[in-house]
Amino acid sequence: MNPIQELITNFQNLVTQVPEIIQPFIVMLAGTIPFIEGELASMIGIVGGLNPIVAAIAAAAGNFLSVLLVVLLTSRARSAVVSRSSVRVAATVGAEGAPPFADDESAPAFMETAPAKPESKGRQRLKKWLTRYGVPGASILGPLAIPTQFTSAFLVAGGTSRAWVLLWQAVAIILWTTVTTVSAWAALTFVVGV
User: Fold this and answer.
1) Where does the sequence pass through the membrane (predicted)?
2) Backbone angles phi, psi at 111, to 5 degrees
3) Beta carbons within 8 Å of 189's beta carbon, 6+ residues apart
4) Domain boundaries defined on the chain
5) What count of Cα atoms within 13 Å lies in the side-chain half-sphere of residue 48?
């Protein structure tokens, strides 16, 4: 037995100490963690001895639930920021001790918004990326660079519809989890021989 087979066998023996009914929930919890997500969680499940289909479904479900939570929280935060009223600045004409105007109509009040911060380089890149690939491209290509939770938060914070983000994040999660699950299963079956 080569060292990789021995390592996998030892890991599977460790996993067998956990009740079978709990094993998919552990994979689901692993799928909620950014940078592990559905892709690595399904691999962990397969290496641990779970059925590849059960591992993939549990990992994808955990990843999607965390994305759903992030989208809902980000949407609420965006709504609060957008609905906040702008700042009113009243300016008076004359000397420092001049009496205020009697009515608001003759008062020289100016509606001003707080000065906007210049856009960061990251936000500029994200806008360029969204313009070039759209939400589907950003969702499907996003996991190659950053976790789906971060991608979905950026998209919703930028004003994209929650339903549209959730739809394409679900497509991306299913796609990438399937690709990595099949790859891990094939590698373990045909290359390692476990």
Assistant:
1) 21-47, 53-74, 129-146, 166-192
2) -85, 115
3) none
4) 3-83+120-192
5) 24
